[in-house]
Design goal:
By secondary structure, the chain is mainly alpha-helical. The protein has 7 helices and 6 strands, in the order ββαααββαααββα. The longest helix has 20 residues, at 130-149. Belongs to the universal ribosomal protein uS7 family.
């Protein structure tokens, strides 16, 4: 409904998801409009159902990390409400739009995974799925706010507001943006492309490394190379 506003103040109308790949995974459309980020929904029962959870509720839940904060959803909701007030005062924008922009900017697009077994392990760059980009962005934003507020006179709400504003601008003052750049830099260093000479195409998209090695051997020593069994 058009008249549903988050905390009775922030409208869900005209919230724009500027990254087309994340449109289906950031729930801010009219269907996901809520008064408070507390729907008591069962979003973990089925794979991908969490994508339908209102994005501000996901941010709220992510604040409840570390044992001493588990289950304190009212406290987390209050922190988000205060942070949104601060964002509006500092930027004069709808804090919902700032939060959505921050999540879009903070999700890494590429990461490095470990490939191999039995002691021989190497890193390989891989693309990150849209849902994981959103998950990681939320985690990085809340972790940055939590670390900034620890042993600091600034409240967690102020730190969360700063983190969201900086991330929405793409500023390197943001913990999430710094971590995202670091993850992507490591992934870029671990990019490895299979050389066409080293592998032979057996079916569309499939390579046989063993057959490729045999082909290279045949090129070097055409008469001495044993037949591939």
């Amino acid at each position: 409904p058009a008249d549903v506003k988050l905390f009775g103040k922030w409208t869900f109308d005209d919230i724009e998801v500027k990254d087309i790949s994340l449109e289906d995974y950031i729930a801010v459309k009219a269907k996901s409009a809520v008064f408070v980020p507390h729907t008591a929904g069962r979003y973990q029962k089925k794979r991908f159902r969490k994508a339908q959870c209102p994005i501000i509720e996901r941010l709220t839940c992510s604040l409840m990390m570390h044992g001493r904060n588990n289950g304190k959803k009212l406290m987390a909701s209050r922190i988000v409400a205060h942070a949104f007030e601060i964002i509006h005062l500092l930027t004069d924008q709808n804090p919902l739009q700032v939060a959505v922009d921050a999540i879009i900017n903070s999700g890494p697009r590429e990461d490095a995974t470990r490939i191999g077994s039995a002691g021989v392990v190497r890193r390989q760059a891989v693309d990150i799925s849209p849902l994981r980009r959103v998950n990681q962005a939320i985690w990085l934003l809340t972790t940055g706010a939590r670390e900034a507020a620890f042993r600091n006179v600034k409240t967690i709400a102020e730190c969360l507001a700063d983190e969201l504003i900086n991330a929405a601008k793409g500023s390197s003052n943001s913990y999430a943006i710094k971590k995202k750049d670091e993850i992507e830099r490591v992934a870029k260093a671990n990019r490895q492309i299979l050389r066409p000479t080293a592998c032979r195409l057996i079916a569309p998209g499939f390579y046989s490394v063993r057959q490729g090695r045999h082909d290279m051997q045949q090129q070097r020593h055409p008469h001495t190379s044993p037949a591939l069994k």
